[in-house]
Write a structure and sequence with these properties.
Elements lengths: L2 H19 L5 E6 L3 E6 L6 H17 L4 E12 L4 E4 L10 E11 L3 E11 L5 E3 L3 E2 L13 H8 L12
Length: about 170
């Protein structure tokens, strides 16, 4: 991972942290291309369909922006059963003792490829979140189709010309 990507990861995850502190739970995407853009979606975690719709729109925007680097960050609750890490939205149920709140992030850089990580956080008794430093996964990650950013990445690497023209109006 290069320093430009790490700087973008820090920027985007800090934006999500500010939103979580304010009681919001948006997905935030940073795009570096012809222009540097920030795109957010507050319905991302409502359902798989809303997440997918956002990533499809974001892919079209990224393509039209000649994006060469992007980072998507989403607040979630993680559960690690020892074999697979599962994640769910923060709002679906109280955090259980064996779960961890985290900002899940995925980055992609045209020259360095894909990276994954998270920003774990806990809450004080009054509910105020306390964030740790961003973590970068050094072991291989096998993302599932519903992993935040997976659809965006697949669309951007599918070489679909003028992706925006294929979207419903």
């Amino acid at each position: 991972m290069n320093t430009h990507t790490w700087t973008l990861i820090e920027d985007i995850t800090a934006r999500v942290q500010r939103a979580v502190r304010a009681g919001d739970q948006p997905a935030i995407l940073g795009l570096h291309g012809t222009r540097n853009l920030i795109v957010s979606d507050y319905d991302y975690l409502c359902s798989w369909a809303t997440a997918l719709a956002f990533e499809i729109r974001a892919a079209a925007q990224a393509q039209s922006n000649a994006t060469h680097r992007w980072v998507l960050a989403v607040p979630q609750v993680w559960y690690d059963d020892g074999e697979i890490i599962q994640a769910r939205p923060l709002h679906t149920a109280p955090v259980q003792a064996d779960e961890q709140e985290a900002i899940t992030w995925m980055s992609c850089d045209d020259t360095d490829g894909v990276d994954y990580g998270r920003v774990p956080f806990t809450r004080r008794p009054n509910g105020e979140p306390v964030f740790d430093d961003p973590e970068y996964f050094t072991s291989p990650v096998h993302s599932l189709q519903r992993t935040p950013g997976a659809a965006l990445h697949r669309l951007l690497t599918a070489n679909i010309p003028d992706l925006a023209s294929h979207l419903p109006t």
